[in-house]
Amino acid sequence: QVQLVESGGGLVQPGGSLRLSCAASGSNIGSINVMGWYRQAPGKQRELVARITSGDSTNYADSVKGRFTISRDNARNTAFLQMNSLKPEDTAVYYCNADIRRLVTGLTRTYWGQGTQVTVSS
Q1: Mean pLDDT confidence for 80-90
Q2: Looking at residues 78-82, what average pLDDT do you find?
Q3: Which of 87, 96, 105, 113 is deepest in the core (most CB within 10 A)?
């Protein structure tokens, strides 16, 4: 089984920073192509925040450009989301996802983490 485990969420004041981590673990992880962060606020649809390819190409939602930075450590199958200058509208559950190719079967599928709450409030 493959799991994505997020950590690093919490409560922060406006203007503050948080760093989210997403670690992929399990058997037969062959390679991980795209890793991404999504978020879902109450009453809203889940939206893409940022994504990064295995070659470190990135793209961001317009609302977070210049404030958030996505990165990854391929050796540890881990992605990070550094969030600076946080605003109340960044409040949401943040989900990690990854396209993982299984070593034995060679098949690729998308996996999701369980989500971590980020609350920006004074």
Answers
A1: 98
A2: 97
A3: 96
